Backbone:
């Protein structure tokens, strides 16, 4: 299949080129013949937190190790996505009757604790939580492998002034390291906080969805390594169908907390190329509840910039009325 | 943990209190200084053209030099801020309307060249016609140079910047005007600077009004502009600007007073940019500025009526979490 | 399982997706618990009480699979009338000798079928070799039983049961008060849900949930499986924990059936293989016992206890002779008993901990450490290092510079001054080793599965494989001895030692595998151990592996994906024995050979074809009908009846009660770990009476229920690190996942001791004190046992002083008290925990000594003094 970014667009610019549902993101980027859009569906309900994805990604992409620091954030010492972390497994412990207010401050004496001390039976866990009943209570230990979302409307790509960030024929978003000049604009543009500048080479780095492997018709390293198929790779359409079925399956089992995130082409970024099945609110995992690509407002932004520029010119003109000297 | 706020905040969940979006990697003082210098230079070019049209030679000369100097130094800071400064020319590979940094490169580059040409012509006395045309060109690119930087900040996911995208250009416009005029008031004899004084007052009024509107409209996101280090910088700058406006009118006959007010305007303009910059960083670092407004947005949408069902997830509700 | 075997755990997730219910029993809530349906927090070391509670639940409510139990177990067997249970003797079984701490199983034996008066006395057991009906050989004499347990003979039952002299008298109605079934009921009657709560800290509601889940999911239509790893084995009652599980599974009819059984998760670095082709002192390949210098003066006396016994174990002569032929080839002839005399003999306990004591005492001079890091990975780290410091020479082969290779310059004892580098006379040789991708070979892991790995890259520089090292070592030693006339050197010189090597000198692993598989008279590869002969015509390096190279094809190398096979997937790798995936699968059919249910159909009798058929290799003589009755005097496999599903047992039945083969009792009994804050609620006998202790000042034991060491601690694993850390703490990508040593405590314990999440804490036992960061988490529960609340400190054990991440080793805290069957240490103990970092240098020794003094530990002997027996019983 040819993938030619320079080829003329078919039929002009899509009205949703900047925002809104965009069925063919690669075509919008200029590809004429291109493979189906690839992506990830990460089903966190079967994640066992093994971090094979983190290691496989670093091994394949030769990403440097980035810090040996015990975070205290449960078993998450990786802490966040960044220039040197392209897969990040989050861990959140949620006891039903916590004996701490939060992990950082033990001993604040909440209800469950007193109840335990006095031998009072604490509340039963609800099945719809997918909590694991444990002793006289229950604990939910949420685990989720986070990754670049490869948004349909990718703010990082939109703001990149050198053209380093580009849309591949697979619909993914990749940084060209030989062009990036480290301006850092992509960093605050990303609504998910994914991309960052490297401390070593001062350029922007992020998940490439293993572009080199895709070109060889192979599976990205993380999906290949995941033992429980929490990370699923494939054509995005098919993944979305699979995800719908999986959520329905979980709801039928009574796991009401299961929901999809980033799957909806109508959302603020036009849907993600890497989307998730979560068992709690997005912000619990460190994800924005309602991410919107900043480009949605670019027209309004320029309008106001123009108006302000005109105002400036006008004020200047008015200020100089009334002669040369007075 | 987090600072105590005066009003009890709505509860929200986060991932160990960690920020969601990334803090901008732009360096301080490089970027705030660039914003300031670009604002001053662009407004200066406009003043230069107005001065030329009204025959105010000393003002014209000075403002042309300030425009060229400001642009040059500002460009220096901008290049220095890059992770790979040697690759700065890569900015000119593409022109993308979705990227204020891309558009801005194509404003800054022509402006710098034209301002430099007109200043050179001014200094050497050579090619006056071309110099004048260059100056006119710089004046055309001037206002965009001043205000596009607001787009630069606003066109990100940084809550305090993005939500302020309507007012920020006007804040920057006003601030650019006060900076350029202030510089003129410092460097030009009093007799030649009434236009500068008037322009400065107009700019001050514009800036302060826009800033006030910004704070009122932003709700919770106004906090970084009012609290903490960024809040202190903003308050200081606005007081300095307001004071200069009043004092410069009252003491308009005194060269010294004018000069002092001018210097204050210039300093305040710089401090404003630092304040805005810091406010953005502060809003990036605390997840509440991302989570709470987005939850409110979702709640508002839910209240407005059910969306077409594109998934099976239960309706999103803002949660007071445990 | 998700922590230690994440790749294998995908199959549990697959089962869960198909509706299986996953119950996780563990002192801490792990990544397995997170995806399980139910997590049962349990006090570390109390699994016998928990499983015993389940057994009692089954027996008290008649929830056993009765047909299965009657036909396939020894439930109906009648035991000697002199047998006394722990119920009778407050925690002891009859036959205990307090002097030696050993049991004589004399009173645990089956009553003889001809014993009319029921007085329990059977025929001759004096060891005179007289035939006893179908079962030859003497019963186990007092002398031989002790000797055999001293040398951990139990381990030789790794592939088949202990011999008994005769089949038992039976009561098919299961009513005789001396029958196994009734003994079981009496013995486990004490393990009520309330007792389970008092011992384990498990709430009765949760216990009921587990009991209901297991019993409702067992029987004709459904089966349940148990999986375990070192949470059951690393205890002074470890073997009995597994015994309790097997009693439970046998009563529920889960053994030998698809989806049932007990799966030992032996996953890392071919640990199953390390007992199959052993690196252990007490067994030979295929679980043949190592000959004993006093008992086995010749081949016949060696074979006598097992020879001719019912079942395939009775063919032991064939396996042993073939092994000897594999070792000594042409030099092994019938005249010299196939060089049986060349085999080294043991005289008692040469287990690792005893050997280390021998090093400390100067009796053991040299040491090979091959892929092993005892300074971090063995119990009582100081003892390990003191032992190594007293050697003449030490050879370490590893991928990284492990702590056991550098203890002499940077070990903890150098820091405290207990050892001085200049005074350590050990000559240490470090030889770099090839990794598992730099050499070809097989791993044998869970499910007895051999999986062959090809070599992917050449080892760098001087790194070599184990095969190459040992082959070369053997070559050089043989070269040195080439002209020797000393008889003592014949065993080395007569070895078959001729493997093809590649250009680098690396022996061909497949040639070794073929030798293990065995060859026939013409040198052709054998296909099944039934082809082995006792006349020296066959050679086989490991009889249970015979067939792995059948048809001269490396069967272990087969990699047909599961989606191209049926659910048994026989063409992936090769399982011993005979590629049989489910052992004892005769039990998957009813006594008449029909399936128990369509849903659980597995191996069934096809009357038309006259053989057993099914998707797996039948674990039975393939053409033996279900109604076959063996002739009088039949021996070996001929003595297997049509309903003797458990063919490796001499009576063909699963043993609910073990007359033989287990050192610490025919039935499991809960005892407290050697260090415990709790009085044994069941009996006055606090600890396992026949546990192996190591009484030495270097191994002091915390007194039980001591105020000074009030908390329980146990060690465990993290997914991110691997065993003693040599392969993970030296790699950046793994180190950054878990970059610093830590312990885990409950919020209540944190409050009690003023511990702050993420800060440093010091943990002390009588052996040593270590420091770590602390994670305060609800995943460690405070356990309420009656009125007492027990707190547990959890310690991932992976850390040592070398590598990118460095820390104190939790195994420095662990004492050496061993299970009497297999001499494995107990990883549960007591400790104290305090905020702050530990003292440095000699101050550390003083700190530990202060603890010992306050606790009343006798530093001369290391003994804590015997904990007082509680008078009477309280329930």
Residues:
């Amino acid at each position: 299949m040819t993938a030619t970014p320079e080829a003329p667009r078919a039929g002009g610019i899509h009205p949703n080129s900047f925002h809104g549902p965009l069925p063919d993101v690669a075509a919008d980027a200029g590809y004429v013949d291109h493979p189906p859009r690839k992506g990830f569906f990460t089903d966190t309900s079967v994640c066992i937190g093994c971090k094979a994805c983190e290691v496989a990604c670093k091994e394949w992409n030769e990403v440097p190790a980035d810090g040996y620091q015990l975070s205290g954030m449960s078993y998450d010492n990786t802490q966040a996505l960044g220039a040197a972390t392209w897969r990040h497994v989050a861990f959140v412990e949620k006891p039903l009757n916590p004996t701490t207010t939060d992990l950082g401050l033990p001993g604040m004496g909440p209800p469950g604790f007193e109840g335990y001390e006095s031998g009072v039976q604490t509340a039963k866990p609800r099945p719809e939580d997918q909590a694991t009943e444990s002793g006289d209570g229950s604990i939910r230990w949420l685990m989720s492998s986070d990754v670049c979302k490869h948004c349909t409307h990718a703010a990082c790509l939109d703001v990149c002034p050198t053209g380093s960030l580009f849309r591949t024929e697979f619909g993914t978003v990749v940084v060209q390291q030989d062009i990036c000049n480290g301006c850092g604009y992509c960093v605050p543009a990303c609504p998910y906080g994914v991309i960052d500048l490297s401390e070593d080479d001062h350029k922007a780095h992020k998940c490439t969805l293993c572009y080199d492997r895709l070109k060889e018709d192979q599976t990205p390293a993380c999906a290949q390594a995941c033992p429980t198929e929490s990370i699923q790779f494939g054509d995005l359409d098919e993944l979305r169908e699979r995800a719908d079925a999986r959520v329905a399956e979980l709801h039928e089992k009574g796991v009401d907390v299961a929901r999809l995130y980033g799957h909806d082409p109508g959302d603020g970024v036009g849907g993600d190329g890497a989307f998730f099945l979560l068992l709690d609110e997005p912000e619990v995992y460190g994800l924005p509840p309602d991410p919107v690509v900043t480009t949605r407002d670019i027209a309004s932004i320029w309008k106001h910039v123009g108006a302000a520029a005109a105002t400036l010119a006008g004020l200047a003109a008015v200020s100089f009325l009334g002669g040369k000297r007075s | 943990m987090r600072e105590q706020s005066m009003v009890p905040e709505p509860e929200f969940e986060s991932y160990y209190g960690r920020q969601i979006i990334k803090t901008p990697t732009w360096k301080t003082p490089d970027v705030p200084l660039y914003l300031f210098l670009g604002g001053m230079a662009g407004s200066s070019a406009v003043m230069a053209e107005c001065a030329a049209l009204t025959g105010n030679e000393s003002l014209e000369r000075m403002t042309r030099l300030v425009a060229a100097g400001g642009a040059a130094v500002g460009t220096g800071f901008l290049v220095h801020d890059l992770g790979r400064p040697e690759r700065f020319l890569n900015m000119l590979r593409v022109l993308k309307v979705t990227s204020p940094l891309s558009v801005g490169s194509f404003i800054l580059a022509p402006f710098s060249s034209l301002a430099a040409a007109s200043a050179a012509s001014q200094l050497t006395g050579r090619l006056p016609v071309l110099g004048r045309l260059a100056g006119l060109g710089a004046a055309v690119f001037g206002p965009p140079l001043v205000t596009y930087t607001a787009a630069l900040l606003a066109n990100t996911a940084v809550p305090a910047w993005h939500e302020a995208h309507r007012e920020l250009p006007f804040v920057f416009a006003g601030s650019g005007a006060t900076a350029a005029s202030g510089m003129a008031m410092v460097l030009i004899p009093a007799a030649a600077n009434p236009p500068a004084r008037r322009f400065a007052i107009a700019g001050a009024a514009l800036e302060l009004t826009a800033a006030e509107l910004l704070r009122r409209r932003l709700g919770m996101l106004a906090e970084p502009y009012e609290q903490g280090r960024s809040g202190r910088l903003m308050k200081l700058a606005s007081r300095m600007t307001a004071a200069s406006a009043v004092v410069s009118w009252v003491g308009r006959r005194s060269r010294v007073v004018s000069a002092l007010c001018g210097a204050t305007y210039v300093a305040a303009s710089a401090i404003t940019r630092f304040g805005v910059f810091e406010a953005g960083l502060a809003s990036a670092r605390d997840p509440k500025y991302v989570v709470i407004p987005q939850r409110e947005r979702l709640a508002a949408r839910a209240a407005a009526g059910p969306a077409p069902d594109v998934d099976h997830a239960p309706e999103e509700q803002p949660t007071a979490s445990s | 399982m998700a922590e230690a075997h994440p790749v294998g755990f995908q199959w549990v997730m697959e089962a869960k997706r198909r509706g299986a219910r996953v119950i996780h029993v563990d002192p801490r809530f792990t990544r397995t618990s997170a995806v399980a349906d139910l997590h049962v927090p349990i006090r570390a070391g109390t699994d016998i009480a928990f499983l015993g509670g389940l057994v009692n639940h089954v027996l008290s409510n008649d929830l056993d699979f009765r047909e299965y139990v009657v036909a396939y177990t020894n439930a109906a067997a009648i035991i000697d009338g002199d047998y006394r249970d722990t119920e009778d003797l407050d925690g002891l079984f009859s036959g205990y000798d307090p002097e030696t701490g050993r049991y004589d199983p004399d009173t645990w034996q089956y009553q003889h079928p001809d014993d009319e008066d029921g007085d329990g006395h059977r025929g001759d057991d004096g060891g005179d070799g007289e035939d006893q009906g179908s079962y030859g050989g003497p019963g186990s004499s007092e002398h031989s039983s002790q000797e055999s347990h001293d040398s951990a003979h139990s381990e030789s039952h790794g592939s088949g049961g202990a011999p008994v002299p005769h089949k038992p008298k039976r009561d098919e109605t299961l009513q005789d008060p001396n029958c196994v079934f009734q003994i079981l009921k009496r013995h486990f009657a004490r393990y009520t849900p309330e007792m389970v709560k008092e011992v384990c800290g498990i709430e009765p509601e949760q216990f009921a949930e587990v009991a209901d889940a297991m019993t409702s999911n067992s029987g004709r239509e459904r089966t349940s499986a148990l999986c375990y790893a070192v949470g059951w084995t690393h205890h002074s009652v470890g073997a009995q924990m597994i015994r309790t599980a097997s009693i439970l599974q046998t009563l529920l009819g889960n053994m030998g059936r698809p989806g049932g059984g007990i799966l030992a998760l032996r996953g890392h670095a071919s640990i199953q293989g390390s007992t199959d082709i052993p690196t252990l002192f007490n067994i030979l390949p295929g679980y043949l016992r190592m000959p004993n210098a006093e008992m086995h003066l010749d081949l016949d006396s060696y074979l006598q206890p097992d020879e001719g016994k019912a079942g395939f174990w009775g063919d032991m002569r064939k396996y042993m002779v073939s092994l000897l032929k594999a070792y000594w080839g042409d030099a092994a002839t019938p005249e010299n008993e196939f060089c049986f005399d060349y085999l080294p003999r043991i005289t008692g306990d040469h287990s690792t901990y005893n050997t280390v004591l021998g090093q400390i005492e100067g009796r053991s001079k040299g040491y090979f450490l091959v892929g092993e890091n005892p300074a971090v990975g063995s119990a009582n780290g100081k003892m390990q290092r003191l032992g190594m410091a007293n050697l003449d020479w030490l050879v370490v082969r590893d991928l990284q510079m492990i702590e056991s290779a550098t203890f002499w310059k940077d070990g903890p004892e150098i820091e405290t001054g207990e050892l001085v580098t200049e005074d350590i006379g050990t000559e240490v040789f470090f030889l770099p080793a090839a990794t598992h991708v730099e050499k070809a070979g097989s791993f044998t892991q869970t499910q007895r599965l051999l999986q062959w790995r090809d070599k992917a890259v050449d080892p760098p520089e001087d790194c070599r494989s184990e095969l190459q090292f040992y082959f070369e070592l053997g070559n050089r030693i043989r070269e040195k001895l080439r002209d020797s006339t000393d008889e003592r050197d014949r065993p080395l010189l007569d070895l078959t030692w001729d493997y093809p090597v590649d250009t680098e000198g690396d022996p061909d692993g497949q040639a070794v595998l073929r030798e293990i598989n065995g060859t026939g008279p013409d040198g052709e590869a054998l296909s099944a151990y039934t082809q082995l002969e006792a006349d020296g015509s066959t050679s086989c390096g490991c009889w249970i592996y015979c067939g792995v190279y059948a048809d001269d094809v490396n069967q272990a190398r087969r990699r047909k994906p599961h989606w191209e096979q049926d659910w048994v997937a026989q063409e992936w790798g090769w399982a011993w024995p005979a590629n049989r995936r489910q052992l004892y699968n005769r039990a998957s059919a009813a006594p008449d050979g029909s399936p128990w249910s369509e849903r659980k159909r597995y191996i069934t009798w096809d009357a038309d074809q006259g053989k057993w058929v099914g998707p797996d290799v039948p674990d039975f003589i393939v053409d033996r009908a279900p109604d076959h009755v063996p002739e009088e005097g039949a021996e070996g496999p001929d003595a297997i009846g049509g309903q003797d599903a458990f063919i490796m047992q001499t009576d063909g039945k699963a043993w609910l009660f073990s007359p033989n083969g287990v050192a610490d009792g025919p039935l499991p009994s809960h005892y407290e770990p050697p260090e415990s804050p709790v009085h044994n609620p069941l009996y006055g006998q606090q600890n396992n009476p026949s546990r192996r202790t190591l009484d030495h000042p270097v191994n002091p034991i915390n007194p039980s229920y001591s105020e000074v060491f009030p908390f329980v601690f146990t060690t465990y694993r993290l997914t991110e690190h691997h065993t003693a850390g040599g392969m993970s703490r030296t790699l950046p990508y793994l180190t950054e996942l878990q970059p610093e040593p830590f312990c885990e405590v409950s919020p209540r314990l944190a409050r009690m001791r003023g511990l702050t999440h993420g800060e440093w804490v010091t943990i002390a036992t009588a052996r040593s004190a270590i420091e770590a960061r602390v994670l305060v988490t609800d995943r460690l529960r405070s356990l309420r046992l009656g009125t007492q609340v027990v707190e547990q400190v959890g310690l991932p054990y992976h850390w040592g002083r070398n590598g990118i991440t460095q820390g104190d080793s939790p195994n420095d805290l662990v004492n050496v008290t061993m299970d009497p069957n297999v001499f494995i240490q107990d990883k549960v103990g007591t400790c104290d925990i305090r905020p702050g970092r530990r003292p440095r240098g000699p101050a550390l020794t003083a700190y530990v000594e202060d603890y010992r003094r306050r606790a009343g530990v006798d530093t001369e002997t290391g003994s804590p003094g015997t904990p007082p027996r509680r008078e009477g019983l309280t329930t």
About this structure: The radius of gyration of chain C is 27 Å.
